[in-house]
Amino acid sequence: MNSNPIPTETNVSASMDPSRSHSSPEITPEVFISTVRQIENQIGQVMVGQAELVRQSLVTMLAGGNALLEGVPGLGKTMLVRTIAQAVDCSFSRIQFTPDLMPSDIVGTNLIVEDENGRRQFQFESGPIFANLVLADEINRATPKTQSAMLEAMQEHSVTVAKATRHLPEPFFVLATQNPLEMEGTYPLPEAQLDRFFFKINVPFPSVDELVEIANRTTAAETPSAEKVADGPTILAMNALARALPIAPHVTAFAARLLKSTHPDDPQSPKIVRDFVRYGASPRGLQAMILAGKIFALMDERYNVAFEDIRQASLPALRHRLILNFEAQAEGISADNIIQQLNEAIPPTNTP
Amino acid sequence: MNDPDSFVPRNDNLDQILRAFRRRLRLVDGWLIAQRALWIPAAAMLGIQMIGRLFPIGGISTGLLRQPWFWALFLAWGIAVMLYALLKPLSLMQTALRVDASIGLKERLSSALALRQMDDVPQMFRQRQRADALNHARAIQPREAFPIPWLRKPVAFAGAIFALSILSIWLPNPMDAIRQERAAAKQAILEEAQKIAALKQQIESGETAEELTPAQREELLRQLEALERALQANPGDLEQALADLNRLEQELRQNLDPSVGAKQAYLDALTEQLSRLSGKQPAAGSNNPAATALQDLLDGLDRLEADSASAEKQRQEAARSLAQLAAQASQVGDNNLSQALSSLRQALQDGDPQAMDAAAQAAQAALQQLKQQLDNQQAIQGVLAQTQSSQQSLTQAGRQIAQSQGKNSPAAGQPAGPSSSGASPGGASGQPSGTGGGSMANQLPPSTGGQTSVQPRGSAAAAQTGAFDPQIYAPWQRSSTSGEQLFIPGQDTNQGQTSTTEGQSPQAGLPNPALMPYSQVFFQYLSAANQAMQQNYIPANLQDYVRLYFSSLEPK
Questions:
Q1: What is the ipTM of this complex?
Q2: Last residue of a domain, which of B114, B146, B170?
Q3: What is the pLDDT of residue B292?
Q4: Chain-chain contact of A245 with B128 (C-beta, under 8 angstroms)
Q5: Which of A121, B162, B329, B350 could cysteine-pair with B337, CB 3.0–4.6 Å?
């Protein structure tokens, strides 16, 4: 467990409130782009391949959200988070979720300690959640109670212990992982809690060439490591800049139509949605697509969001927000199949 | 990404750039729609060709390319395409969206337009985005970005239809023969219409039929006017023209006295007999030779000596002749003349000069009335002969058209009849001689032709064409109140005879009205069939069979 200095409630609120942090510098889009390039380069020196995973993870972090990674063990998820933390000079902690993990193991607890004068008093011992980058490994193995504590911290960027609310350090970025195998004895995340994840990122298995490169890098005498190219305030400033990027109304409308078409009761929804979707995506999905689209646009050195950005963001932003019915499971239809068909079926504009 | 300082637009007029794209898009859209719609005029052309092979429409074949409406079709298509290209709604935003999508500008132009309308956009992004959009837009030439496209499939499809249409122009059209037939028939019908018009004009000017009363003349002119109008409006339908002519013929026949021939023959015989009795031929220019001959006879009798034996003999002979003529007048249906001649005979036998004068005046008046009746009938017969001549001419024209089209071959041994120009009103040179027996056979000789001859029904056509025209049955009124009165000699009446009405019994030397020439009966039946079809008495699906049936029976 990471033992960060325990701040008082007051100074915690003053120093860790993300939106309240006025110390983040003003940056330009050009700085944003160059920083992203540098971070990607640093991660690329450590990580082999997984460009999509890296990019989507960065987008999630720059958007101030949290990502759910789904993939088999050993694909470099921990290394990814650690490398990001190194590149952006942020604290990192890793929590391995198990069925006996308690909420206090995550958020921390009050301990009775004696001071120099022998007086006993409660002292808050912060949990591993108090870090800028948190890797919640196999989050579905913890009990719902523990999951709930974790997800509340993700949502609120604060924890409450013994009536004292403590804000988490900013930037705060959680990468939760989920193993699609060995589902026995797990507690799948409820839809309401899945909705709190900005992106759900599938971690693909590396190709042969990537495996060769992984083997070469990890079995050599020197292990590569990332250098610091940014810091927390810069990440916050990048977040603010991305949010300030304007988006044209017709692009927003396209994202809204795309999201609305995930609902089977929508008259514009295609047949595959009506057949296989039980519930469509929530408005959080639209927010995620728009915000991710802005970051994708800036990463692409553009000052406007394109339809392509929305489409690019739609898969990770919506795949965990669609609730499929039994027929979809029976026929092997995945949320990705449906979203891909939606992207092909929904025209960018209503005008010809 | 470039340095933002370099984003100083040389020409910040995004609208101007988008307008240039819009013009190009309109051109491309117009060109695309023109290629996609090229099949429409091609299909219309082919459709016209197909219609021209189903219906006899003029100007479809090789004349198609000279038809103004054909080029008007293409012009209309071109104007429609041009109007579509020019007037199709295409706003600047739509233009920007299309350019973005077509060139892959990732919504730079459309976003620039949209952000221009938004107030809460940070200036930093507004300027950069606009500069970025302008830089990308300027780097693209509309002509290169939107080249004139060629749609192979639609153009090839339209070209195939065009080729088929052009080819079909020179392919044989079965409707050409029909159109030529109709044109020839129309020409023949118009010629007959002109003849009818000429006849009408003659009647109006009084050159002919001056004997008719004004009412009769007006009615006749009305009938001729209707016929001429019907023939003028006829599009080339020979059957219809023949039916119109036949209709007028039937109307004229209703006004025709069937005993006019007998009366004319009787009048000729009376004139000859009176001239023989008086020993003096009537003057050549006499308007009424019979009346003149009677006057000559009465003048001759007046000059005889009262107690002379030869005078008495002549009186007796004249009285017998007058009695015989009175009986014959009764037989031809002129009772007034019969009674006047009987009175004259009685006065002659009695030697009463006053009674003779009165009876002579009555006989003169009866003869004048009979002459008037015959003149009226002659005028009607003149028109009737013209209608028959026109029918024959049209029949002959139809036969010649059929022969020229190679559809029908002339009947074996059937001589080609003379044209309609050989037919003249009242002309009956080929009229068969009467060979019927009976008491009147030797008293009513067959007509020798000329203006006063009575032409048997249907014989004119046979006479003109020289073709055999078989007599077939036609319905006729057997018991009619307007029929002949037969006088049977030897019965005890005040005139020594009795009479009975036997209906329209044929006179000696005249054909039986129940048997009519085939060519005339045919048109009666055809007219009845046409009328029945017009009134839908015959089901529509059977009407073609009826027409074919009558076409096969049409007299050659």
A1: 0.81
A2: B170
A3: 84
A4: no
A5: B329
